[in-house]
């Protein structure tokens, strides 16, 4: 059987074109001419034997075959870049300290640690799962080299990676015990203060003139999911990694305020960034691209 070796440069142009919505913009990002990028796309279509993109308005969207290839292309490029980084920096040593939100502790963190350890086995990495305020304090005090934090607008120099939708969450088994028409305080399930999402929930309810009460407080997400699943109250969170026993509530149907998206950013201390920290940031970006829906990712 004769195997086809996909062209990595063509794959990179294909991914950049889909993410930018046009191959003219992709050409600008890649420092190439539009005709060169178009030629690479044509080569990729010849290699795969299928049409990969179609026009939608003024932009481009992937065909069914293009969507399949897009997922593989991102993984191939990530592995390629990881391999090149490992070869070019074989003697990278030292240590790097990473802080990450609990929301990503069981999903993104294992992937990040595994990739980094394979690429840089001589670098010691220390990880901390913490709350937003704690991670920001440790970045400011120099006790962390890199942190993945919710973007509350406090740091203008933070690197926005994604924007996750916020939503009201309730039990998947129990009907909410509260309705706006009853004029009863909304029972809230929250994390311990200080908590960015707890504050946001209270402020949103106050702005709509809706009464609320704290029904359950947890120091961890597992406790928050358990209380919400049991029907003790309503939680405000992103839908990412929510418990299977928790569902997204329709805000209009339940008389709850509409919610914005919440930015997810990489935060670094003001001092000079180390090579290990830069490599770790690259792997975090790649892991998030692999994990989060494309619609949530911030465009470069």
From TrEMBL:
HTH lysR-type domain: residues covered: 6-63
Pfam families cross-referenced by the UniProt entry: HTH_1, LysR_substrate
Record carries keyword Transcription: yes
Matches recorded under PROSITE patterns: HTH_LYSR (PS50931)
Keywords associated with the record: DNA-binding, Transcription, Transcription regulation
InterPro entries in UniProt: LTTR, LysR_HTH_N, LysR_subst-bd, WH-like_DNA-bd_sf, WH_DNA-bd_sf
Keyword DNA-binding (UniProt): yes
Molecular-function annotations in GO: DNA binding
Alphabetized SUPFAM superfamilies for the sequence: Periplasmic binding protein-like II (SSF53850), Winged helix' DNA-binding domain (SSF46785)
Domain of life: Bacteria
TM helices/strands, residue ranges: none
Family: Belongs to the LysR transcriptional regulatory family.
PANTHER family found in the cross-reference section: HTH-TYPE TRANSCRIPTIONAL REGULATOR LRHA-RELATED, TRANSCRIPTIONAL REGULATOR
Protein name: DNA-binding transcriptional LysR family regulator
Organism the protein comes from: Martelella mangrovi
């Amino acid at each position: 059987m004769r195997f086809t070796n996909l062209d990595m440069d063509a794959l990179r142009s294909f991914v950049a074109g889909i993410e930018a919505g046009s191959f003219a913009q992709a050409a600008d990002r890649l420092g190439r001419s539009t005709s060169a990028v178009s030629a690479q796309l044509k080569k990729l279509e010849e290699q795969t034997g299928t049409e990969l993109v179609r026009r939608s308005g003024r932009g481009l969207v992937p065909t069914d075959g293009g969507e399949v290839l897009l997922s593989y292309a991102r993984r191939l490029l990530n592995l390629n870049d990881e391999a090149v980084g490992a070869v070019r920096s074989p003697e990278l040593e030292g240590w790097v300290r990473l802080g990450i939100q609990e929301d990503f502790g069981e999903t993104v963190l294992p992937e990040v640690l595994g990739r980094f350890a394979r690429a840089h086995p001589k670098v010691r990495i220390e990880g901390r799962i913490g709350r937003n305020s704690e991670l920001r304090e440790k970045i400011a005090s120099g006790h962390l080299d890199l942190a993945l934090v919710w973007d509350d607008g406090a740091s203008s120099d933070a690197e926005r990676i994604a924007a996750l939708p916020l939503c009201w969450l309730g039990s998947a088994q129990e009907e909410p015990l509260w309705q706006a028409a009853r004029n009863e305080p909304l029972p809230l399930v929250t994390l311990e203060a200080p908590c960015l999402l707890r504050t946001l929930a209270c402020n949103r309810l106050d702005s709509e003139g809706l009464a609320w009460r704290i029904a359950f407080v947890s120091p961890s997400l597992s406790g928050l999911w358990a209380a919400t699943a049991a029907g003790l109250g309503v939680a405000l969170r992103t839908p990412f990694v929510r418990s299977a026993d928790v569902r997204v509530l329709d805000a209009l149907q339940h008389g709850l305020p509409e919610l914005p998206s919440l930015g997810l950013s990489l935060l670094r201390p003001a001092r000079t960034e180390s090579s290990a920290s830069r490599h770790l940031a690259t792997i975090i970006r790649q892991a998030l691209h692999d994990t989060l829906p494309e619609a949530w990712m911030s465009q470069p």
